[in-house]
Amino acid sequence: MVTKGWLLHSVVAMVLIIEVFSQDCGQFLTRLRQANKANLELLNSKMNSTIPQQCIEDVFSFSLKNKLPSNLDVSEAENAKVAIQEVLQQTGHIFRQNCTEMLWDEDFLRAFHAGLDQQSENLKSCLSASPRSQRIQLTRLRVKRYFRSLNDFLKEKEYNRCAWEIIQIQVKQCFLWIENLIPMIRNEEREGRLVGILSFTSN
């Protein structure tokens, strides 16, 4: 059984580990995946095992209309990193809203914020593409639009319990998306390094 103390220790430990490895971007992707799993475990531990009856209609209605954009261009590792970094950053922002109805205690929220902030900043330091690149800017804009819809929904529902149930479901989907994206980034970068080595040795 996963206990509150174990989860809190796990999240805090991942913050420290990621900080130590922040200078090694290859190693950081491995640590990011571990931290993302810790984020998922924490989120799962705080979510209801079933959707409250009074929230079911809102959950299905919102989920059909609002999803992380499927047209995000994550075919290249650099753009995928940008998308993940923006998701982490925006998730941190949204969980700093009025969380009274979410029933998270302060220790969990602080650990969650610290982890997201550290992951976002370290991933940002691993980006090599120009922030002014049109593709990079478009990726950030699409992620921001998605999270703006979450923020607008929270405000519209006055940060009530059902609204936070929906936000947690949406954020969980984002973390699952990140989980699937990290191996793709690692594989592409590994192939890129191999091509570089082969090009060098053939000269």
TrEMBL record:
- Compartmental location: Secreted
Q: Which UniProt keywords apply?
A: Antiviral defense, Cytokine, Disulfide bond, Secreted, Signal
What Gene3D superfamilies would the database entry show? 1.20.1250.10
Which family would the database say this protein is a member of? Belongs to the alpha/beta interferon family.
Listed SMART domains = IFabd (SM00076)
Name of this chain's protein: Uncharacterized protein
For this protein, the record's InterPro entries field holds: 4_helix_cytokine-like_core, Interferon_alpha/beta/delta
Output a single Gene Ontology CC term carried by this record.
Answer: extracellular space
* Biological process, per Gene Ontology: adaptive immune response; B cell activation involved in immune response; defense response to virus; humoral immune response; natural killer cell activation involved in immune response; response to exogenous dsRNA; T cell activation involved in immune response; type I interferon-mediated signaling pathway
User: Any keyword Ion transport?
Assistant: no
Species annotation: Anolis carolinensis
Pfam families noted in UniProt: Interferon
Q: What GO molecular function annotations does the UniProt record carry, in alphabetical order?
A: cytokine activity; type I interferon receptor binding
Q: Which gene encodes it?
A: LOC103277686
Would you indicate the residue range of the signal peptide? 1-22
